[in-house]
Design goal:
The complex is a heterodimer of chains A (about 100) and B (about 600). With about 100 residues, chain A is mostly helical. Chain A contains two helices and one strand. Classes of the chains: A mainly alpha (about 100), B mainly alpha (about 600). β1 of chain A pairs antiparallel with β3 of chain B, so a sheet runs across the interface.
Chain lengths: ~100, ~600
């Protein structure tokens, strides 16, 4: 962004937190690390519950598998986006003035 | 207890007086209505009140029990918050309609008989249509009209059900119904229209984004939740509801992904959330009903909060399409923060309100799926889990991301007005408070519960689900696969009556109108011929008879012509020699005499 201002002009806008690409990168890095951390925590959780250190209440067998919820959440959202984009949108998309005339 | 204690009337009549006030007094008066209503509600004893006999009908205008009381609380709370939110608007119509609408919702949930229930149910439509029309745009007028048509139809279906039920049983009691006859099906479907069941849902996604900024917040709170209450009251444990609810939870999320208008995205996600409630009512166990009611309570808050934040964005920027927005966190940081709280709540993040109610419904479904013959509930559970991941995807990430972050639109505006921020702040506070201390909510649910949402397992699995949904969003966005927002209309079931209706109209116009025109031209031709014929019919008949006689008597050319002309003119000008008319009349009488 151009920070040089002449007299009489309004001063350039102040830098906001995500104007700096480094901050965006930092945020993404934190996010990706926490995603990986969750995978590890799940392993620890499974080990602890199998050794009866903590009680784990599950309704279904598959909930016991490693990272069932992680994988389900990821696959669900990828499917959601792909179906919406490649199947639903071509079917239902019309011009903005479709209903106008 | 008198009729003035009815929560509905406090709102409806109180609202009518709003135009009498000005300035600060008006603001204070408007805030007082829900406060007075709430104090009144706290002092209402349990049980049936205000019984009223009208001819054969035994009406109960007010019935208080645990199921409707919790709806009563939240309706008052959201009415209070929304009132604060709309204080900076100046439209009396919107104010009066808003209070009338809130009052109608309260009247419906506290109704102790089907007739009172129906009267308030119809009032809901009146209030809500006014909130849509208050926007005063052409699109809002059209959407409001469609909304009115759909709800008028739904109301008639409900009424037909009630009338048949009354004629069969002689009872107007708000009892449990089972689907076993025309009456029960009609009432069920009538309520379903207000509940935005799949295929009859588009009144919601069509009209809510067209309403006024404050109107949409009101709308999101009452109509569908009143219907949820009605189903919980009249049809708990109806298995069909499980499947309807699953459909509601699943299909709108696909639409939400490709929708550009952010308030319409929220409208779709509203249906998705109501789907969880409907499933809960369908399962029908104490835990499931508690979950449905708790989720309705929370949804009113977080959906209201999300609509308020988008309303604030619209108020400041005049825009609401994702394609036009972005980067607003810079100029509207508070609105952004409140929106994120709403997004976290609807996504059911631990410590936010959605978490403590959605998990009740999920647990209830899972528990019941182990019962004999209930194996299909496993599929229900899996779809709900899919829907839970999906809601985070569009309401949790898409809404805040496209409005406040993402591509910087360059729009620089002022932060939302103070009253709006206070309203959003209150809703955000409640979302976090309920999410953190769910006991306060659990205490007012219809059934006593010791449900524990905060187990290690719940928290960990839900966090995994949400973080990996977010991961999918991040990767798809960075990879350029995430569908770009586009200015477009997405067809939905309302196509049937928007385009299809026009098609029927065109069909009628193209078949019936030409037939009409054809008939008219034939008719006109007949008339024209008849006019010409009857103009001198008398003279021609006289000529026909006379000329034959004259010819036989040997009359020839010139003389014949002369006679013909004279007779023709005499008949037309009625200058026949005296006696001729009388002779004709007499011969006519003789003729009649002979013939009879």
């Amino acid at each position: 962004m151009d920070n040089h201002t002449k007299n009489g002009e309004t001063p350039a806008e102040k830098q906001h937190i995500f104007d700096n690409p480094d901050n965006v990168k930092k945020l993404l890095r934190i996010f990706f690390s926490s995603v990986v951390a969750l995978l590890f925590i799940d392993i620890v959780y499974i080990l602890l519950s199998e050794n009866h250190v903590i009680h784990r209440h599950v309704e279904y067998e598959w909930e016991k598998y490693w990272s069932f919820y992680s994988i389900y959440g990821f696959v669900a959202c990828v499917l959601l986006v792909l179906v919406s984009k490649y199947i639903l949108r071509p079917l239902v998309k019309r011009k903005e003035n479709y209903y106008d005339n | 207890m008198t009729i003035s204690h009815m929560p509905a009337l406090i709102f409806m009549l109180g609202g009518l007086l709003i135009p009498l006030f000005r300035g600060k007094a008006k603001s204070i008066y408007m805030m007082l209505i829900p406060v007075v209503g709430f104090i009144n509600l706290l002092n209402l004893p349990m049980g049936e009140h205000l019984a009223w006999t009208m001819g054969d009908f035994n009406l109960v205008l007010l019935n208080i029990d645990r199921l409707n009381l919790v709806f009563g609380y939240i309706f008052h709370i959201i009415a209070f918050i929304t009132t604060i939110y709309i204080l900076n608007f100046k439209d009396n119509v919107e104010f009066v309609a808003g209070f009338f609408y809130a009052g109608a919702a309260l009247g419906t949930i506290f109704a102790g008989d089907l007739f009172t229930f129906f009267v308030f149910w119809e009032s809901l439509t009146v209030g809500s249509v006014m909130l849509i029309w208050s926007r005063k745009t052409k699109a809002a007028q059209a959407a409001g009209f469609r909304y009115l048509m759909v709800h008028a139809f739904g109301g008639l279906v409900l009424l037909a059900g009630i009338v048949i039920h009354y004629s069969q049983t002689g009872s107007l009691e708000m009892a449990h119904f089972t689907l076993n006859g025309l009456a029960s099906y009609l009432m069920f479907f009538g309520i379903g229209i207000n509940c935005a069941w799949p295929l009859v849902h588009p009144w919601l996604t069509d009209a809510y984004p067209e309403a006024t900024i404050g109107g949409t917040v009101f709308l999101s709170a009452f109509t569908t939740k009143t219907a949820v209450y009605a189903l919980a009251r009249l049809y708990p444990g109806t298995e069909l509801l499980i499947w309807i609810g699953v459909g509601m939870a699943a299909f709108p999320i696909f639409y939400a992904v490709i929708e550009n208008d952010l308030r319409r995205v929220l409208a779709y996600s509203l249906i998705n959330q109501v789907g969880f409630m409907v499933v809960g009512i369908g399962v029908g166990t104490e835990l499931a009903i508690n979950g449905a009611v708790a989720h309705a309570f929370n949804d009113i808050l977080f959906k209201g909060l999300l609509f308020m934040s988008m309303g604030a964005v619209m108020y400041r920027t005049g825009k609401i399409n994702a394609t036009d927005l972005g980067g607003l966190y810079k100029s509207m940081p508070w609105t952004c923060a409140f929106c994120i709280v709403g997004a976290a709540s609807i996504s059911a993040f631990p410590l936010f309100s959605g978490f403590v109610s959605k998990s009740m419904v999920m647990s209830a479904v899972a528990e019941n799926s182990h019962l004999p013959g209930q194996g299909a509930l496993v599929a229900v559970w899996l779809v709900l889990l899919f829907a839970a991941a999906g809601v985070f995807h569009h309401a949790g990430i898409k809404i805040p991301f496209f409005a406040f972050f993402g591509h910087d639109s360059g729009i620089r505006v002022k932060e939302a007005p103070k009253n709006m921020l206070i309203a959003m702040g209150m809703a955000a506070f409640l979302c976090i408070f309920i999410g953190t201390f769910p006991k306060f909510l659990y205490r007012v649910l219809p059934f006593a519960t010791d449900y524990q949402p905060y187990t290690i397992s719940h928290v960990l699995t839900q966090t995994e689900l949400l973080f990996f949904s977010a991961l999918a969003f991040a990767l798809l966005l960075l990879g350029g696969i995430y569908p770009a927002e586009q200015r477009a209309v997405n067809l939905d079931a309302d196509w049937v009556y928007r385009k299809g209706g026009r098609g029927v109209y065109a069909l009628l116009a193209n078949t019936l109108n030409p037939m009409n025109a054809k008939s008219e031209s034939v008719f006109q031709r007949v008339i024209a011929w008849a006019t010409r014929f009857f103009k001198d019919a008398g003279a021609r008949i006289a000529l026909f008879l006379s000329v034959n006689v004259w010819l036989m008597s040997g009359m020839k050319r010139k003389r014949l012509e002369l006679k013909k002309n004279r007779l023709y003119n005499d008949v037309l000008q009625e200058t026949l020699p005296i006696g001729m008319g009388a002779a004709i009349a007499v011969s006519f009488i003789i003729l009649v005499f002979i013939l009879t």
